[in-house]
Description:
mainly alpha; 4 helices; flat
Amino acid sequence: LPGMFLSSLHVRSFKRFEYEGCPAWKRQLRSWRIQDRCIWVFGLLYCGFCIFFITLFLANIAADDHMDWGISVVVALIEDILLIPLCVALFLPLLAVIIVSLVSCAKKIDKDELISQRHKHICRDGTLAYPMVGEI
């Protein structure tokens, strides 16, 4: 929600003016600079609130739970930063290879021929979707 608010402040498009430095041009630049300052102020306030909230949370963790909480943070970070991207990077290409193999076995054609046919279809029609059976 805060990200949406900040991004709504940063909506710009190309503007045409009579010449560079005209009063309308200067007014537009002043407006954009004010918007930029608002984005910085609200962004810094939001970051400060987040830091304050996390600090309050950490201050309220019982002394007995410090080690358990720290271990859970490390495990969560390893999952988010290392394990999930690694699994996605390994399994999505593997899934693609398996699907190509299954489709080539079902159609009883070579994988290279299947890929070649698909490439021709994409180049010809500009779409990844095959036509439905009733549309052929």
